[in-house]
Write a structure and sequence with these properties.
There is one protein chain. The chain has one domain: Nucleotidyltransferase, domain 5 (2-Layer Sandwich). It has a 5-stranded mixed beta sheet with strand order 5-4-3-6-7. It has a two-stranded parallel sheet with strand order 1-2. By secondary structure, it is α/β, with parallel strands linked by helices. The mean pLDDT is 90. Helix 3 packs across helix 7.
Length: 196
């Protein structure tokens, strides 16, 4: 797939400026696999890497579709928690974080996000991600002017704008320093009965 995309663009891997990767948050295994593949390609081509937030990529997608400059992205983190982040698009197309990315119980979103937004006196927001369908009452409980962007998942093409600005800020790293962001510090797994 990588070869076919490069061939379509009439480029080789070594002609690229950097490799962009989804750093998470998201599925532990999926994020690790994505980072690992990107690291392998970057090592082989001696390219720097730029990590892009899954939640910010969803905000960019929502902006592309709706022109909403303020987006609250949230996805299911399993174990009765959600990953959430709030973003504001600047006039130059770069994004600033209004609500730091966090993993929390859905019922805490109302308190945490409402306090943060009130501190910034923000206006209308667009929502993106799967959480809003899983917990339909959350959006109305925020007591904000909210519209649904229809965005459920991030798309690779939306990472490019974010990576462009990150590169301009000098945020690229060598492949060996590329890492994922899980937000959750510990995970406890329970063995099923009669399993070793």
């Amino acid at each position: 797939m990588v070869d076919s995309v490069l061939a379509e663009a009439q480029l080789t891997l070594t002609q690229l400026d950097a490799l962009v990767f989804g750093r998470g948050p998201g599925s532990f295994t999926g994020v690790r696999i994505g980072v690992g593949i990107a690291q392998g390609l970057a090592f082989g081509a001696d390219l720097p890497m730029v990590g892009v937030s899954t939640l910010a990529a969803m905000a960019q997608r929502a902006y592309n579709l709706t022109q909403s400059a303020q987006v609250l992205s949230a996805i299911d983190a399993r174990m009765n928690e959600i990953y959430v982040g709030g973003f504001h698009c600047l006039e130059n197309g770069d994004w600033v974080t209004i609500q730091e990315e966090a993993v929390l119980a859905p019922e805490l979103l109302i308190q945490v996000f409402s306090e943060r937004v009130q501190a910034f006196s923000m206006g209308a927001w667009s929502i993106a991600g799967t959480v809003w369908k899983a917990y339909p009452e959350l959006a109305s409980q925020l007591h904000l002017q909210i519209s649904d962007s229809g965005v459920l998942y991030p798309e690779a093409q939306d990472m490019l704008v974010l990576a462009y600005h990150a590169l301009a800020r000098g945020e690229e790293v060598n492949a060996e320093h590329a890492s994922s962001v899980y937000l959750r510090d510990t995970v406890t797994w329970k063995k099923l009965p009669n399993r070793k």
